[in-house]
Design goal:
The protein is built from no helices and 13 strands. The protein is mainly β.
Amino acid sequence: SKGATNLTMDGANSTFAGTITSGDIIGSSADLTLSHSGGPSVYLRRDDTSTETNNSLGAIYFQSDDPTNGTYNTGPYIEAKAGANWGSSSYPGYLVFNTRDTSGGHTAALTLNKDASATFAGTIGATNFSGSSSGTNTGDQTLPTDFVSAANGGTFAGSVEITGNLTLSDG
């Protein structure tokens, strides 16, 4: 609108007020919509010619405004990291799903490793493992063998809590 500042760029911060419409990208207020007939993509890029083991490749942070001081605080976040030094045609990586407790500390709750294994921290509750009921199962539980199979790279750094019997089956 006339006289209103809709775009501000000061080198460190950029703000935009209004609506962006450019082909497949639509941004309005706090919503961003990407659409494309072939399926949209989002690229988070590290601008570095020497990506090394455990370097951050990008992250998605979930934040909320603290009502007492007007600042945004990070709750959980998802981070992608280099799984080893990157080289020609070799780009290993892994994902870390971080949670935050009430004292403000972040914890890697789930890591999807470069070898396609998963590492869980904490407790894995016995809910809906058999897929036949909802809520917390307190009777016998049935899990497919690949749920905790070492051959499939399953790593649990914590405990699996099940009240009753645990049965592993292959189907």
